[in-house]
Specification:
The complex is a heterodimer of chains A (114) and B (112). Chain A has 114 residues and is mainly β. Chain A has no helices and eleven strands. Classes of the chains: A mainly beta (114), B mainly beta (112).
Chain lengths: 114, 112
């Protein structure tokens, strides 16, 4: 049962353009969402998060949008840079008793072309 | 402030041996999480620990796997009698109280 889904295994974007990565979830109890970036042979690096009480959070070139009714979130990167080429994971959690067990999507491999 | 430390980075074991993976959380972080990533898949939650307590082990296989986070020292994920299907990348994350999790570089376990 895949509660968090990233339906695009890969995405190719030209340098300078906008990258949009999508994520869908099924568990309506999820109330906190995160995006992580991962390079090969390294651990995931935290990028940006959003609480379910918000619909948008912005940090520099990165913006996350949350549509609770559609159970959908997206990560926008603008402008895209070559160093953004990595695998991006969407994650969600349900805060019970302070625990924050993360449920991850399968990842989307983003390639930024010069 | 050093990040989450994991060692070893690479571990090779033969079937039937034991694997011990260590994780030192970031300074000031009292919550530790272990995740496993199989090839071409996302990370899967295994266990959540605080000092000397297992809070949630719902993702841990019922047999051969155990985890601890002692009062002193790193958190340990222990896999007894390893099988080929245990080959994966094991990531540890730490956080302050109910905050963003920060991940270590992972331990890549290969079972021959």
């Amino acid at each position: 049962d895949q509660q968090v889904k990233q339906n695009s295994p890969s995405l190719s974007v030209q340098e300078g353009r906008i990258s949009i990565l999508n994520c869908d979830y099924t568990n309506s109890m999820f109330d906190y969402f995160l995006w992580y970036k991962k390079y090969p042979a390294e651990g995931p690096t935290f990028l940006i998060s959003i609480s379910s009480i918000k619909d948008k959070n912005e940090d520099g070139r990165f913006t996350v949008f949350l549509n609770k009714s559609a159970k959908h979130l997206s990560l926008h990167i603008v402008p895209s840079q070559p160093g953004d080429s990595a695998v991006y994971f969407c994650a969600a959690s349900e805060s019970i008793q302070g625990a924050q067990k993360l449920v991850f999507g399968q990842g989307t491999r983003l390639t930024i072309n010069p | 402030n050093a990040g989450v430390m994991q060692n070893p980075r690479h571990l090779v074991r033969r079937r039937g041996q034991e694997a011990r993976l260590r994780c030192s959380p970031m300074k000031g972080h009292s919550h530790v999480y272990w995740y496993r990533q199989l090839p071409e898949e996302g990370l899967k939650f295994m266990v959540y620990l605080q000092k000397e307590n297992i809070i949630d082990e719902s993702g841990m296989p019922k047999e051969r796997f155990s985890a601890e986070f002692p009062k002193e020292g790193p958190s340990i994920l222990r896999i007894q009698q390893v099988v080929r299907g245990d080959s994966a990348a094991y990531f540890c994350a730490s956080s302050p109280i109910t905050d963003t999790q920060y991940f270590g570089p992972g331990t890549r376990l290969t079972v021959l």
